[in-house]
């Protein structure tokens, strides 16, 4: 089985694919983890420290949950900018519309996983007044688009197995849950990602098609209750998705799949006729000590020179301010980055995923002042040829 998988991987790297190229500079923003709770603000932080956890070693020890003010500040900086067609930049916000229900889990002795949708409220001990309204105001202003991420974000079967084994891992899980924190991933990578269990043999790490379809269906339901709409774009937690994931997404109406950074692959249709987009600029000042606007601009230039969209990856932690103020620096850098893009490219276009899907299928999209037409060409490429960007870094 492993030999066959290696051969198939090599074939895929050299297999010609049909990609889409554009005659104008296009910039998209994609952002993960919105709505997902982390360390429960200062009270949860102190509770974990009292339990013996040495917090503060990495940025994600400070991951909490965005506040209404965080979201409003992001909206405001986006509203200050326009592209050549008068359009504001728009962030594709990938939501986790479900959190752990710590109150019910506590009542059961933290022996099972219980879920609470954001539409039902925030978990016990969490307070975010005005946050849902702030999300919706950004959507109405045209600077946010809501998309699908996951529900637990971690691999539930893997976590449940560790919980049942009653070892040190189960003790760590309960320590976190008692403090209103679902997990801190870098401290426990064995929890995996929603559709992917790292502790299984390589050929069995992805959940079955049936399990993935059920999870995605449940997450769609929670998303619809929160936003009264269905998503058309999705990004798998940890970027771990396979053909079964793509098929389940497609069956639920997803038209665009967001993939992680690491290549200059052009947009192209993959399995289940889902448009594949690969991020190629990492805008992560909260987690990247070497972050610079110059690097972002060089990668943007490399994309535009190739005729492909510059797709910016920026996780929600960059806008958090409750435990540590990542937001102030990020907002300033984002403002600077948008200024630089607008100064350099007089015919710049800010799009979101659905715009790009329409552009590829119809050669046009609906702008703020009417229909915008762009020349779209199709050319073949191979994954190996587009494998590495000019400047990148390992994910944290």
Strand content: 15-25%
Biggest sheet character: 6 strands, parallel
Helix content: 25-40%
Low-confidence stretches: 390-396
N- to C-terminal separation?
30 Å
Shape: globular
Q: Radius of gyration, Cα only, in angstroms?
A: 21 Å
What would the average pLDDT be, to the nearest integer?
93
DSSP helical segment count: 12
Give the topology string: H per helix, E per strand. HEEHHEEHEHEHHHEHEEEEHEHEHEEE
Q: Structural class of the secondary structure composition?
A: alpha/beta
Number of E-state strands: 16
What features would you describe in this structure?
With 396 residues, the chain is α/β, with parallel strands linked by helices. It is 36% helix and 16% strand. It contains 12 helices and 16 strands. The chain has helices spanning 2-14, 41-50, 68-79, 102-107, 131-140, 156-164, 168-178, 209-227, 243-251, 293-306, 327-344, 353-362; strands spanning 17-22, 26-34, 91-95, 98-100, 115-117, 144-148, 233-234, 256-259, 268-269, 275-278, 281-282, 310-313, 349-350, 364-367, 370-373, 376-381. Strands 2, 3, 6, 11, 12 and 13 form a 6-stranded parallel beta sheet that branches. The chain has a 4-stranded mixed beta sheet with strand order 7-8-10-9, covered by helices on one side. A hairpin with a 5-residue loop joins strand 9 and strand 10. The longest helix has 19 residues, at 209-227. Residues 390-396 have low confidence and may be disordered.
